[in-house]
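User: Hi! I have a protein structure encoded as tokens and I'd like to know what sequence might fold into it. I'm fairly new to this, so please keep things simple.
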């Protein structure tokens, strides 16, 4: 019953955004990201956390697709600047399809802030906003590589890939609705990008590249770690998959 009610809430939000009609290039992943977060925290008391995390990841996915396969470099420059400003006035400079994403994202954050007001925890939203900005900057870097026809060195790619894995952003955001468990100390710890989190980001980045790089190249995406490794070490794809790619990625903490 609870699940059905929540589905209704998401469905209304999703219909209001009307993303699929307006942005036909995006992957419409609402059900997928909702079930992901249902697996992360299924307990009834975390319904707000699930709502926040689902909307957050849905919006990130739209932004990812926009940087990967749709926006021109000029448009993406404007969007990146608007994200840096994080102010509704900044939407004025954006093309209309980007305004929908930008305003949708800011609306989600306004909603999170009001969800947390009762607990006097709305200030925690800033931790997530800072991480969101880092993710978007990293998406922009990938777009610049793509448009500049540049294949970066693995080290550069992986340093950027820590942000594009979005795990630090997800860690900061998924705590927001968790009530007393989510102390300011926990957010401060996430903000330092502790090694356990960075390693998770690296694993996620590499696994994602292994599984989806061919599909992403077909969609017109930027080079993944596989292409970077092949170019840097002059190996065949299979070698990159089987051995050298993973070996070469035994990285020190590259987040600093
Ligand atoms: Mg991407």
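Assistant: Happy to help. Inverse folding works backwards from shape to sequence: for each of the 256 positions I chose a residue that suits the local structure. Here it is:
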């Amino acid at each position: 019953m609870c699940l059905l009610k929540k589905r209704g809430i998401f469905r209304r939000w999703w219909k209001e955004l009307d993303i699929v009609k307006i942005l036909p290039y995006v992957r419409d992943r609402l059900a997928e990201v909702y079930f992901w977060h249902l697996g992360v925290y299924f307990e009834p008391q975390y319904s707000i956390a699930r709502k926040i995390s689902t909307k957050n990841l849905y919006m990130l996915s739209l932004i990812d697709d926009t940087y990967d396969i749709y926006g021109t470099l000029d448009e993406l420059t404007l969007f990146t600047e608007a994200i840096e400003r994080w102010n509704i006035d900044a939407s004025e400079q954006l093309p209309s399809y980007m305004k929908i994403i930008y305003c949708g994202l800011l609306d989600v954050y306004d909603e999170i802030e009001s969800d947390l007001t009762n607990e006097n925890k709305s200030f925690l939203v800033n931790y997530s906003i800072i991480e969101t900005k880092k993710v978007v900057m990293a998406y922009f870097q990938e777009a610049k590589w793509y448009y500049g026809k540049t294949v970066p060195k693995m080290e550069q790619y992986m340093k950027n890939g820590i942000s594009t894995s979005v795990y630090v952003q997800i860690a900061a955001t998924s705590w927001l609705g968790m009530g007393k468990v989510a102390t300011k100390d926990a957010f401060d710890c996430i903000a330092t990008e502790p090694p356990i989190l960075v390693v998770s980001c690296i694993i996620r980045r590499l696994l994602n590249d292994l599984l989806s790089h061919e599909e992403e190249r077909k969609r017109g995406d930027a080079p993944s770690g596989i292409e970077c490794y092949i170019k840097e070490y002059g190996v065949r794809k299979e070698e990159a998959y089987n051995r050298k790619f993973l070996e070469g990625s035994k990285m020190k903490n590259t987040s600093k």
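A useful reference point when you look it over: The longest helix spans residues 195-219. Feel free to ask if any position seems puzzling.
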